[in-house]
Design brief:
Largest sheet: 4 strands, antiparallel
CATH architecture: Beta Barrel
Shape: globular
Number of domains: 1
Helix content: under 10%
Distance between the termini: 35 Å
Length: about 100
Amino acid sequence: MYLWASLVGIAFNPHKGKMHVTIQNSNTVSSIEILTNTVMITMCVNHPHDIDFNTTMDTCVTTAGRGTVNVIYTATNTVVATAHLGSFQFLIGIAFNPN
């Protein structure tokens, strides 16, 4: 498997056997099937950075330089919500509280 640009974040979903990878230079998030080592879909997300899964299998991506957090519903691989956090220059790090 070859990913052609700047990899920034990786999150593994143990329930689905997939991982999501943020690729900052191409403004995308790729969903990869672990068993076949295949990129299943690539989604457009502006300046993605860190990524993590929550307990309901949604994915949250910090968007560097935009002051936003995007929520990707992994069942459909679509951005379902965007939270605007203000005029931050650069967001780094994201984590979920399982409770």
